[in-house]
Write a structure and sequence with these properties.
The structure holds two protein chains of two kinds. In chain A, 73% of the residues lie in helices and 3% in strands. Chain A has helices spanning 2-32, 39-57, 61-82, 92-114, 139-161, 163-173, 175-180, 185-207, 217-232, 237-257, 263-277, and strands at residues 129-132, 135-138. In chain A, strands 1-2 form a two-stranded antiparallel ribbon. In chain A, a hairpin with a 2-residue loop joins strand 1 and strand 2 (135-138). Chain B is an all-alpha fold. Classes of the chains: A mainly alpha, B mainly alpha. Chains A and B meet through helix 4, helix 9 and helix 11 of A and helix 5, helix 11 and helix 13 of B.
Chain lengths: 286, 314
């Protein structure tokens, strides 16, 4: 029973982070119908930024988080204006190749600059673990989950309560109508990229205090984000949040019930089952 | 058209005599790799280029081809040629099982699904003890003969076997382009709803294309296993293999008969030369280079770098 509750707790904790990573992906997709294949690799960049702030400047990932988030926000907007803007109306084939090319580029850049070594932040501010009724909870994991929940909540509030958020939703509902209402869709697209990439900035900084950093680290997280987005409905923020938790639980359960080496296979299998059974996503609107 | 045909025969003649002039292992190895990737990219181009269905999972067929023959050879002592046929059957089954449901998916969702399938295959072979799991399979060193598909003294027989496969693949692509299948695939790519409205069974023709793609990739898997004599999941199911096929087709010209051939003759030397000249110091530079080419071509010249020269067969 303790093993079971341990598994559930671990699944929940990682699930909140998956949700945060996926929210950025689903936001970009919802607003402009472009799948950012390089999403996980922006996460990798954020993790490296947090790692190097620690290794070179001695700043703990917890404190460099705002700076990392801001840097990724700017990077997201830059990516939009330099690259994505050119392919908004391009055939889908070109769109796929461009963001996939971006994925390879970022991974190559990381390999070149920082080599294939695995790096970790040792003994950060967040370390150690709690024990509640025989269930161990790592402090960094707990902080990451809490941070992810807060960040998801902020994004949700931003969309619901601010004018910019409403404009963003309007563009994702109907670009043409939004334009007639005087909303500059170009700036909204850029904003979606800024926020979408900034959210992996937060996730990357949080992850770096307990997860190894290496050039390919974004690969699995990126794929998991696709699974989450598919499960939650393409473009749905609330769906991504629920689906993130579900995927976290499924992954940890599969590792516990079957074998740790096969949990990723189960998660990807989940993607196939979902998109084939309900192409609009499990929680998406028909 | 006549001119194109002459050019093609000159090209084939040059490939036939190439080993007579280049006797060192490296240029021969390079040509073998170029032709092997051309065969697989021709296969990719049938479904991805003509049909417009981007597959990031074609390495699955490469892996299945490699493992089918290697397992039959090591466990049952069957000739790799039998293994090649078995690999084709297994790849066809996989193509139908995967393709039938997945061809309902559009664009991005299909592309992501193919990544998932490639990674699932890799994951399963990584833990499947019967096929050596993460360790892979060392193929036994047998006396060299055509039946054993092993040649140790020189790589020349490998070269001509691959040349034959290369010509076979071009023949397949030529027939596809000339056949109803080719026209239907282009129609499906350009306007799926229009194609459906004139009564084209979209899923059926996508499946045919995917099956051809699977067979061409699978035979290369068997060839690779016999050529390198060692296989493991990352070297056969790796995502990068699938991506290379996309890049090659894209560079040469999507949906063009000679697009993947030209792409392969540009891309593979680039890969091999950066590997030789940059070594481990330049780790990552190669990836950055390919990705920049990929992005630049996709934005600036979606019809392929050499689209102008790749009109043959139209």
């Amino acid at each position: 029973m303790e093993i079971f509750s341990q598994t559930v707790v671990s699944g929940l904790l990682i699930g909140f982070l998956y949700a945060l990573i996926a929210v950025g992906l689903t936001m970009i997709f919802g607003v402009m119908d472009i799948v950012n294949f390089a999403h996980g690799d922006y996460l990798m960049l954020a993790m490296y930024l947090a790692y190097w702030s620690f290794a070179l400047l001695g700043i703990d990932p917890l404190y460099s988080l705002p700076a990392v988030t801001l840097a990724l926000f700017v990077l997201g907007i830059a990516t939009y204006y330099l690259l994505i803007k050119k392919i908004i109306n391009a055939p889908m084939l070109s769109q796929i190749f461009v963001t996939f090319g971006l994925l390879i580029f970022l991974r190559g850049l990381a390999q070149f600059l920082w080599k294939a070594d695995y790096r970790a932040v040792p003994h950060g501010v967040l370390s150690g673990s709690l024990q509640i009724h025989g269930v161990y909870i790592g402090i960094p994991q707990l902080a990451a989950a809490a941070g992810a929940v807060v960040c998801n909540g902020l994004i949700f509030l931003f969309l619901r309560k601010t004018r910019a958020g409403a404009a963003l939703e309007a563009v994702s509902e109907d670009k043409e109508a939004a334009r007639l209402m005087g909303i500059n869709s170009d700036r909204m697209f850029a904003l979606a990229w800024g926020i979408g990439i900034a959210s992996v900035g937060v996730a990357g900084a949080l992850l770096s205090s307990f997860y190894y950093v290496f050039p390919e680290v974004g690969g699995n997280f990126g794929l998991i984000a696709f699974v989450v987005v598919a499960l939650g409905g393409f473009g749905s923020i609330a769906g991504a949040f629920i689906a993130g938790i579900a995927v976290g639980l499924v992954e940890v359960m599969a590792g516990y019930l079957l074998a740790p080496s096969i949990k990723f296979v189960v998660v990807l299998g989940l993607y196939l089952v979902v998109v084939l059974a309900r192409p609009q996503g499990l929680l998406g609107k028909a | 058209m006549k001119k194109g045909l002459c050019l093609f025969f000159v090209f084939v003649a040059l490939l036939i005599v190439f080993p007579l002039f280049f006797r060192n292992p490296f240029p021969r190895h390079l040509l073998i790799m170029i032709m092997m990737y051309a065969v697989m990219s021709i296969g990719w181009n049938i479904i991805g280029g003509y049909g417009g269905q981007v597959s990031f999972g074609n390495a699955a067929f490469f892996g299945v081809g490699a493992y089918a023959s290697a397992v039959l050879l090591t466990k049952a002592g069957l000739s790799p040629w039998t293994g090649m046929a078995a690999g084709c059957v297994a790849s066809l089954v996989l193509a139908v099982v995967v393709g039938y449901p997945c061809f309902r998916l559009k664009g991005h969702y299909f592309a992501i699904a193919t990544i998932a399938i490639g990674e699932i295959m890799m994951g399963l072979f990584m833990v499947w003890d019967f096929v050596g799991a993460a360790v892979g399979i060392y193929l036994p060193i047998l006396p060299q003969s055509f039946r054993n598909f092993e040649f140790h003294a020189t790589k020349l027989p490998y070269y001509y076997i691959m040349l034959a496969m290369f010509l076979f693949a071009i023949g397949v692509a030529f027939l596809v382009e000339r056949s109803r299948l080719g026209y239907y695939l282009r129609a499906i790519k350009d306007d799926p709803d229009g194609a459906r409205s004139v009564g084209i069974n979209i899923r059926k023709y996508k499946l045919y294309a995917f099956c051809l793609s699977a067979v061409l990739t699978s035979i290369c898997g068997t060839f690779y296993a016999q050529y390198v004599l060692y296989i493991d999941p990352p070297s056969t199911f790796g995502l990068m293999i699938s991506i290379d096929l996309c890049i090659i087709s894209l560079i040469g010209g999507l949906g063009k008969l000679f697009g993947p051939v030209i792409g392969s003759f540009v891309f593979i030397p680039l890969v091999e030369l950066t590997r030789v000249y940059l070594g481990s110091e330049g780790q990552g530079i190669d990836l950055m280079l390919y990705s920049l080419i990929m992005i630049a071509v996709a934005i600036l010249r979606p019809q392929g770098l050499f689209g102008l020269f790749a009109r043959g067969g139209r």
